[in-house]
Amino acid sequence: MSKDLKIVLVGLPGSGKSTFGKQLASVLQFPYYDLDHLIEDRFQMTIPDVFSRYGEGKFREWETEVLQKFLNREDSYVLASGGGCPCFNDNMDLINDKAVSVYLDVPLEEISMRLGLSKAHNRPMFSGLDQGEITLKLKSLLVERDYFYRQSKIKLSGEDFSAELLVSELIRLLKN
Ligand SMILES: Nc1ncnc2c1ncn2[C@@H]1O[C@H](COP(=O)(O)OP(=O)(O)O)[C@@H](O)[C@H]1O
Ligand SMILES: O=C(O)C1=C[C@@H](OP(=O)(O)O)[C@@H](O)[C@H](O)C1
Ligand SMILES: [Mg+2]
Is residue 40 predicted with pLDDT exceeding 60? Predict the structure, then answer.
């Protein structure tokens, strides 16, 4: 790894990658980026539009392209990835090669409640689902994705994360 420090947050949709990512970036005084927004900027289309017009396959292709390019930048930042990002192509290996990956491991019931409350309007995988269906969908996603999330260099478990605690974990990791 080079002298810059890239932190990439991974975890299920609704685990708080975007929310915690902003807090962490502010504590570290690093710039914050959201991979979904980078994709939207690059292709001038919202994520729901990519899914409905081109399908998930095209989205995954674009996601890897944007991720790869961004990881090759020579600067420090916090990047919130999309929930599926680490689980397609070789994305988790790409992330671990260039960055410190952090898995936000939040209880499913909590995530389900958050997605129910936020109406999942910008999350095409959850649109139109009721609370029970959201929980079932999250369960099946976790079965598929846990294998990838578990490859993260740091795991934070719980519902609320402290940016300061993560900074001390980072220092420990970088010393070893
Ligand atoms: N620690 C938290 N406690 C309560 N609600 C949260 C917390 N973190 C995020 N949320 C809410 O959960 C929803 C999903 O958060 P978000 O950061 O967009 O997750 P992700 O980027 O992982 O999909 C948002 O409505 C957000 O306000
Ligand atoms: O889990 C997924 O496959 C996805 C999660 C979304 O990001 P968030 O995890 O920020 O919701 C977004 O990348 C897209 O809708 C697909
Ligand atoms: Mg997000």
Answer: yes
Atom of ligand 1 nearest to the CA of 117: 25
> What integer best gives the mean pLDDT of the chain?
95
How many domains does the chain fold into?
A: 1
Q: pLDDT band for 120, please (50, 70, 90 cuts).
A: low
What's the domain range around 64? 6-107+148-159
State which ligand 1 atom lies nearest to the alpha carbon of 114. 12
Interface predicted TM-score (ipTM) of this complex, two decimals: 0.98
Looking at the domain assignment, is residue 128 inside a domain?
Answer: no
Residues with CB under 6 A from ligand 2: 13, 17-18, 36, 47, 82-84, 123-125
Ligand nearest to the CA of 142: 2
Q: Is residue 135 part of a domain?
A: no
Does any domain span residue 20?
yes
Task: Show binding-site residues for substrate.
Answer: 36, 60, 83, 145
The full DSSP string for the chain is --SS-EEEEE-STTSSHHHHHHHHHHHHT--EEEHHHHHHHHHTS-HHHHHHHH-HHHHHHHHHHHHHHHHTSSS-EEEEPPTTGGGSTTHHHHHHHHSEEEEEE--HHHHHHHHHHTTTTT-GGGTT--HHHHHHHHHHHHHHHHHHHTT-SEEEESSS--HHHHHHHHHHHHH-
CATH number at residue 49: 3.40.50.300
Q: What are the binding residues?
A: 14-19, 36, 60, 83, 123, 145
Residue at 74 is within a domain: yes
